Amino acid sequence: MSDTPHRYRSADEDSGRWREFTLRAGDVVISTRSKSGTTWVQMICALLVFGTPDLPAPLTRISPWVDWLVTPVEELLADLEAQRHRRFVKTHTPLDGLPLHDEVTYVVVARHPLDMAVSLYHQSSNLDRERIAELTGRPSTPRGARLPLEEWLRAWTEARADPRAELDSLPGVMWHLSDAWARRQRPNVLLVHYDDLRRDLEGQMRRIADRLGIEVADETWPTLVAAAGFEAMRSRADLLAPDPSGVLRDRQAFFRRGSSGAGEQLLSPSSLQRYHARARELAPPDLLAWLHRRPS
Question: Which of 35, 53, 231, 12 lies closest to 139 in space, CA to CA?
């Protein structure tokens, strides 16, 4: 792999902004694909860093999205430079597009791709694209009639996309995760599975705390775990949804269901078989075994 980060660009993201951001020892970079548990892990990091659910500011201000063109880069960098707490930031850029430093921890969150895609489909309807275009200074892309979810999901599993150009495609998802999987033995790279968070939230929070070297008093854990639960986060959508500039039509709708298994249920047996065949073309078997398992 090249030591020079690849530059990922889309209509509203540019990983080139990382070149202007000076990382500090102890920083945490949360790298995910869209709708894979980004906000959840940001909240977990906030709870661990501050030791309380009473955050000093909205989550998006505490843990900004570095690549997002909606926030002017000068404003982003000034906010991050002013932060005195341990910093934890968000990105949808794969690790091969980021500056990698031994003293920085990189947390990569994975979700079953079919579940991620279903959430992405619903999220698309919740975005105010005219507002995004206004904030980025780029033209809004007109949307045609949408396919029904089942048909759209089937097409998504079969699309032949450039993974570095279309990161939210199936090839893009597998590219992002395969890159992280290849680095998983490094002491500063931590992979977290969305379904493990659902099955054992406290255990995963303790695992993250241990990797970050954060100690939490025994009596504090129940309060922090409760605050990281789906319903608790949904009830605080105004403070926790990633919407610093009014690009979401409904902040509570961002926290739609938080469940797993919907993607597999939508596909017919033959379509599901084709999905798995396609996945085998895109990612190594050990990653797929980890990614596709359903914790009991």
Answer: 12
Apex CA 277: angle with CA 294 and CA 189, to 5°? 55
Identify the H or E element spanning 266.
helix 262-266
Question: What contacts 202, CB < 8 A, 6 or more positions away?
Answer: 221, 225
pTM reported for the whole predicted model: 0.89
Taking the CA atoms of residue 285, residue 101, residue 35 and residue 203 in that order, the dihedral angle to the nearest 10 degrees is: 80
Q: What confidence score (pLDDT) does residue 1 get?
A: 42
User: One of 92, 112, 176, 193 is an active-site residue; which one?
Assistant: 92
Q: What CATH superfamily classification does 15-292 receive?
A: P-loop containing nucleotide triphosphate hydrolases (3.40.50.300)
| Cα 100 from chain centre | 18
Tens digits of per-residue pLDDT, 203-242?
999 999 999 999 999 999 999 999 999 889 888 877 776 6
Q: What is the CA 124 to chain-centroid distance, rounded?
A: 15
- Mean pLDDT taken over the chain: 88
Q: What is the CA radius of gyration of the chain?
A: 18
Residue 112 a catalytic site member:
no
Q: Which helix (H) or strand (E) holds 194?
A: helix 194-199
Q: What are the residue ranges spanned by the domains of the chain?
A: 15-292
Both tokens of residue 226? 């409760």
Go through 30-57 and write b for each residue having 16 or more CB atoms within 10 A of its CB, e for each that does not: bbbbbbbbbbbbbbbbbbbbeeeeebee
Q: How far apart are the two ends of the chain, measured CA to CA in Å?
A: 36
The predicted-structure confidence for 37-55, as pLDDT tens digits, reads as follows 999 999 999 999 999 999 9
**Residue appearing with tokens 């892990």:** 41
pLDDT value at residue 119: 86
